[in-house]
Amino acid sequence: MKRLLSLLLVSVLLSGWTARAQMAFRPDSSAVSAFHARELIAPGALIATGIGIHCFAHDAIDVPVNRWFQEQWRAGRPERNFDNYIQYVPIVMDVGLGLVGVPAEHGLVDRLIEGSLACLTLGAISWTCKAVIDSPRPNGVDNRSFPSGHTDWVFVGAELVRMEYGWGWGAGAYAIATTVAVMRNYNNWHWMSDCLFGAGLGILTAHAGRWLLEPTKRLLHIPDVTLGVDRPLHAAIVPTIDPWSGAVCTTLALRF
Fold it and tell me: In the chain, which stretches have pLDDT less than 50?
């Protein structure tokens, strides 16, 4: 029911709305995708801090922080699981903002390739860590606590948004990402070190997606496609309701 209401609300807000995609490109796309050592600073610091706390200061930092969340902030309140849904918002923003007129660093096809490479890299590393590292969750459900999958997923999306659209949109995406990381602690699914490592991993793999973009296109012989520049792209989202079942549906129409 909640999902249907949410879909209906979004559909109504977007009903009949049509947008023309606008995408800004730099003259040398390979320069945008080039590796820069400074891009390792923030994710490296988060990853190192997460590992340090997990390995050497779990009892001194993770446990007291978790106790504060459970005893002081949550204080017996029920779990609030909206983080299960908002974790997807930044990655949707990365693909979708360019379709509603926000100038992006790359075209739609490049954003899809870049995001796919980032998410595949993230998934491989994150799930390997969960399978190999024996880290019990604070709620005791299983031993797959490190790193936080929700956190690394939302942070890869947030960094992709920042890289594509700048800090104006990136700040909002990072606010969502930080909220998810906090809620993983609040809901007692993760330790603080899980979320710090996950945030760093998400940011790092977002950059990996960009570093791999041009080599992947060359390897697979994918040409530059500038949808929205020399060929305007129009998108329309229209809500519909099945008269027989009452199901709420949304129709997406793209015109090149």
Answer: 1-28, 228-232
Q: Do 113 and 217 meet the contact criterion of CB atoms below 8 Å apart?
A: yes
How buried is residue 167: exposed, middle or buried, by Cβ count under 10 Å (0-12/13-18/19+)?
Answer: exposed
Q: What is the pLDDT of residues 38-76, one digit of tens each?
A: 999 999 999 999 999 999 999 999 999 999 999 999 998
Q: What is the 3-state secondary structure (H, E, C) of 82-145?
A: CHHHHCCHHHHHHHHHHHHCCCCCCCHHHHHHHHHHHHHHHHHHHHHHHHHCCECCCCCCCCEC
Q: Are 53 and 62 in contact (CB under 8 A)?
A: yes
pLDDT at 206: 98
For residues 189 and 225, what is the distance between their CA atoms, to the nearest angstrom?
42
| DSSP conformation class of 139 | T
φ, ψ (nearest 5 deg) of residue 57? -140, 30
Q: Which of 199, 191, 186 is nearest to 150 (CA)?
A: 199
Q: Which residues is 238 bridged to in the sheet?
A: 251
Residue 3 has a pLDDT of 39
Q: The whole model's pTM is what?
A: 0.79
Q: Which of 217, 224, 161 is nearest to 25 (CA)?
A: 224
